[in-house]
Amino acid sequence: MQLRKENIxxxxxxxxxxxxLQRHLQSWNYxxxxxxxxxxxxxxxxxxxxxxxxxxxxMPEIDGFELIKFVSEHYPKLPKLxxxxxxxxxxxxxxxxxxxxxxxxxxxxxxELKKAISKSLINRENNTIKTNKxxxxxxxxxxxxxxxxxxxxxxxxxxxxxxxxxxxxxxxGESGTGKELVARAIHYQGKFAKAPFIAVNCGAIPENLLxxxxxxxxxxxxxxxDSNRNGFFQxxxxxxxxxxxxxxxxxxxxxxxLRVLQEKEVVKVGATKAEKVDIRxxxxxxxxxxxxxxxxxFRDDLFYRLTVVEIDxxxxxxxxxxxxxxxxxxxxxxxxxxKDRFLKITPEALGVLKRYNWPGNxxxxxxxxxxAVIMCDKIVDVEHLPxxxxxxxxxxxxxxxxxxxxxxKYIEKVLRATGNNKTKAAEILQIxxxxxxxxxxx
Length: 442
Hints:
Blueprint: E1 7-11, H1 15-27, E2 31-35, H2 38-47, E3 52-55, H3 64-74, E4 80-84, H4 89-97, E5 102-105, H5 110-130, E6 141-142, E7 145-146, H6 150-162, E8 169-172, H7 179-188, E9 197-201, H8 207-215, H9 232-235, E10 240-244, H10 251-263, E11 265-266, E12 275-276, E13 280-285, H11 289-294, H12 300-306, E14 309-312, H13 323-339, E15 344-345, H14 347-355, H15 361-375, E16 379-380, H16 387-391, H17 403-417, H18 422-429, H19 433-441
Parallel strand pairs: 1-2, 1-3, 3-4, 4-5, 8-13, 8-14, 9-10, 10-13, 15-16
Antiparallel strand pairs: 6-7, 11-12
């Protein structure tokens, strides 16, 4: 029976092993990609639709375990097959716990390789059948969204509802929470992924230019309009347009947007004839549009047209369970970029990051890790974090307790340790028996 044609990535620093595997795989009618380092493999994974990863474990700089960890977090449905010339029980157990489907020891026979590949690809097919729901990826990666918190899983569940239709979606959230990543996930995880996706920051385009940039213009519409030109809406026809910071749009632009939503047509600046468009609109803002409606700076009819489906992206301080995964993502990204290797972070430094309140949200976290990677050698520690994070940590009130309660808990701990021997406890606490009796009565 002839095996199915799939894209298989081989990662090994031994070119002889790569050539051997390529010969076998090509004889079975597979497409093969090769990488001699983890860095090169990550580049291929980001640019190519890979169906199976075959990797060695022992490699210089970044080893195969780090690649497996990266793939598990960013490509959870991708099966992983390990081939290694340095087998150990510990390595095999670690690999299996990391989601590796099979584990081959060099040298292996052609039949053993064939069976391992078949097993891995069958596992992939089974996972594909099962993983139609966002919770099946264990909340780790959904497009460019990463997290396992209840808040991010709720966002993903809504995306699953809207990704295959063209209902208008409104995304709200603080600056830096990843609103554009949510918009991209809606587009690229659905059936319209091959259609255009156009992102427009309405706050970055001068007000007098936003109208012509969005809708296009005809020759002679204004000074400098020396030819007909399409706008962002025409460019996104058939796909999705993402209007970030929609609250910055003028009332004139809002009026035109309302027509697009109602009539599914666009009129260029200076034109009289409308053009039909088949488009999904996703809008986002960190402004309070309801307050803007009260102040007559945002149209209420446009607001209700935009908010057919609302997605609220929580600030990072409300989804701190996701910090570990986000930190690993940025450590890999900037470790690869600046140090040519994957870096680790100490528990102390990670603790600081988890206690910080992140007013700049994920964007601030990414900048923080980028700074730390530049400042460290191999391991990110507290000393490598920005100064204001080291010394101005915002502890939650739950972590702070009155001195009397702390003292009481410690005295009780010492008494338990001494078998309720008050004399011994008094010696350890360096107080007399009278004082300890007094404190106990209190």
